[in-house]
From TrEMBL:
UniProt-recorded name of the protein: AAA+ ATPase domain-containing protein
Source organism: Aquamicrobium soli
InterPro entries documented for this protein: AAA+_ATPase, P-loop_NTPase
Domain AAA+ ATPase: 3-175
Highest taxon, organism lineage: Bacteria
Length: 477
């Protein structure tokens, strides 16, 4: 990177984000900026704020040019800091500041606890200053505004900001432990940024680089996730996913998607299918898998369906999360459509375990399912059940029936599930020497997803995704 990574800490007012930022500043020895020192919205009249909320609370209407300039100045300073901390309510939902964020931490504190902390902090300041009558007057005014319109901003902020987080921390944890865990998570992310050009990592080969160069030409932030596919005596590391917000495709996202997909020879009928669903998507994933014949993949992700499914009181239903097209550029007839569905009957660890067990054949081993069950046991004690996210995959014109499980919220590294990976590799008859080399290189990476089940060839496979890291395009000029 040409500048220091910017690490943002977000949460509700009273979540503890500012205290956490200050504690991290001491632990990491890096500069920090605070949104509250630059915003002017709170100086506006209540009527003006209500009007803004009535118009949809567009975060981009909050003018923060001085803050943007200072963030860039600190990140490009000489000597270069390890990172720059950014305490902000808006996360990546505010375009001008969000585009600069490389890692976003969401301090997950329930709104009622956050409000109680905010009021308690104000009361403590007033008592210390001997201003109890003034505090009572302020409290009466604030609570009137809170019930009038402020309360509505809490769920809105959670809906807009939290889904963009790379790391979610439990804001109810003791401050010391929260700061220690956040510092460790940031150091881990910084190691990933530093390793982006590490020659020990498997390079992306020519055909994959073609896709990656088209993403980099967008000149926007994107996530880059690597993976390794295991099965039938083979290990394939020539794989990646580039994760892009739909808006980064341009003012007309369907035109931007068509331009990239046509460069990669996606069949027009499949491209039309993706574009018909693009209006509902928020994220687009661009993937590549090397091998005897390279395979390109583009996924539309419908994050809103997941948020609605997680909403309190929501009735479980099967939700389409990803619609994907996969094709070989030299063979248009190879194109397939895959649908990644969040089943209504797979909410919670026990339900996921039952779905996995149902995938087993009547006889014989099913190594990917065994590995998935072992990884769930390792993850379930590190995060709430609902953060272990399970999907089932079906592919048109193919016997594929597989699963995908997201483990990022557990904060595990690949080394924590090494035993499960080795048992799986042994079943696939993968040479131990090759596996030793692989695990020595990726053991310290964050554990991301495990995909597995029956592949398009009718055989068991497993793909381990790891180490999603923020990147930015090189620009068109």
């Amino acid at each position: 990177m040409k500048r220091a990574p910017i690490v943002a800490i977000s949460g509700h007012p009273g979540s503890g984000k500012t205290s956490l930022t200050k504690a991290l500043q001491q632990r990491l020895g890096v500069p920090a900026l605070h949104y509250d020192d630059y915003e002017t919205m709170t100086a506006s009249s209540a009527e003006k704020v209500r009007d803004w909320i009535g118009r949809g609370s567009n975060y981009d209407e909050i003018m923060l040019e001085p803050l943007v300039r200072e963030l860039i100045r600190l990140a490009e300073a000489t000597p270069r800091p390890k990172c720059v901390l950014f305490d902000t309510l808006l996360g990546r939902a505010h375009r001008a500041t969000g585009e600069l964020i490389d890692t976003l931490i969401w301090v997950d504190t329930p709104a009622d606890i956050a409000l109680a902390r905010k009021l308690g902090e104000a009361a403590a300041k007033a008592r210390k200053a001997g201003q109890a009558p003034a505090f009572v007057e302020w409290l009466e005014f604030y609570m009137a505004q809170y019930t009038g319109f402020i309360a509505d901003t809490y769920p809105l902020q959670r809906e807009r900001v939290r889904p963009g987080a790379d790391i979610v921390m439990d804001g109810r944890a003791p401050p010391q432990r929260l700061a220690d865990e956040a510092a460790a998570a940031i150091r881990q992310r910084l190691d990933l940024f530093a390793a982006a050009g590490d020659p020990k990592r498997t390079p992306i080969k020519t055909q994959g680089q073609r896709m990656l160069s088209l993403i980099e030409a967008l000149d926007c932030p994107f996530g880059l996730e690597r993976s390794v596919k295991l099965g039938a005596g083979a290990v394939n590391e020539d794989r990646f996913l580039a994760i892009v917000h739909k808006d980064s495709l341009g003012g007309q996202p369907d035109a931007g998607l068509r331009r990239i997909a046509r460069e990669l020879a996606m069949p027009e009928a499949m491209l039309d299918l993706l574009c018909r669903h693009l209006h509902e998507a928020e994220i687009v994933h661009f993937g590549y898998e090397g091998g005897k014949a390279g395979l390109y993949k583009i996924y539309a992700e419908f994050s809103g369906r997941v948020r609605r499914g997680l909403a309190k009181g929501a009735k479980p239903a099967n939700e389409l999360v990803h619609l994907a097209v996969k094709w070989r550029p030299d063979d248009p007839g190879s194109a397939r459509v895959s649908r990644y569905v969040w089943p209504a009957e797979a909410r919670g660890v026990e339900a996921i375990q039952r779905r996995l067990e149902a995938m087993r054949p009547a006889e014989g081993a099913f190594a990917s399912v065994d590995a998935a069950l072992a990884m769930i046991e390792a993850a379930r004690h590190r995060c709430p059940d609902e953060r272990i996210f399970f999907m089932e995959v079906e592919e048109e014109g193919s016997p594929r029936r597989s699963f995908d499980i997201n483990f990022y919220s557990a904060g595990l590294r690949v080394a924590a599930v090494e035993g499960a990976v080795r048992r799986m590799a042994d079943t696939y008859a993968i040479a131990p020497s090759g596996l030793d080399d692989l695990l020595s290189r990726i053991g310290g990476e964050p554990l991301g997803h495990l995909s597995g089940g029956m592949g398009g060839d009718g055989r068991d496979f497993a793909t381990l995704y790891f180490g999603a890291a923020a990147r930015r395009g090189a620009g068109r000029g």
